[in-house]
Amino acid sequence: MAIVKFAPVSRWSKLRAPIAVLAVSGFLGAAVVAPFAMPSAPADAETLAFQERIHQKFTPAASDEADLVYTEVGVVELPDPAEVRKKQEAKRAAEAAKAAEEAEEAEDASGESGESPEPAESPGAPPKYSGGGSPAEWMAAAGIPEADWGYVDYIASRESSWNPNATNASSGACGLIQALPCSKVPGNGYDPVDNLRWANGYAMDRYGSWKAAYDFWTANHWW
After folding, report:
1. How confident is the model at residue 55 (pLDDT cuts 50, 70, 90)?
2. Is 49 helix (H, G, I), strand (E, B) or coil?
3. Which one of 5, 127, 215, 223 is at 20 to 30 Å from 118 when CA atoms are compared?
């Protein structure tokens, strides 16, 4: 009877099959994991743009015309226009009475001294902002939590492009968050910290949070 001899199996031959299986598994695993491990380019670009905006140092525009805004979108209206008009009329009446009284006193004084009175300065718009700083510094100084900066940035970018001196060409609304009228902002409507401090109170009082204010803005394009 013929004897069949089998060639001895080398150690490499024994290990080659398991290694091949592991290699294939590793490749497939990498193919599955890789897409989920890759960073999102659009999200990164958006984050970088946000960081650049809020840390951009402010430089005043060369002319008043460059500060003009030609859209009504985003202008914050007064909660009670009738009440505000009533207060404005009372304020104007008081100012007129005071001006008349001062004019009369000046006339009396000029009559006694024989000199012509100096013309009284009429109240005008608040001075434009000429300081420096960045949106991040302004929001921090206004007491807005950093967790809300993204919501504030979304609204301010559309209201004023982060220009503290932005002025609506038709309504006169002013500042980072277009206040109407400008005088409703305690302090100076063009001062970015004053404007944001007022806007923060407005967001909390009317919507309860900046997130809710942002949701309303995105749905209505004003707030």
Report:
1. very high
2. helix
3. 127
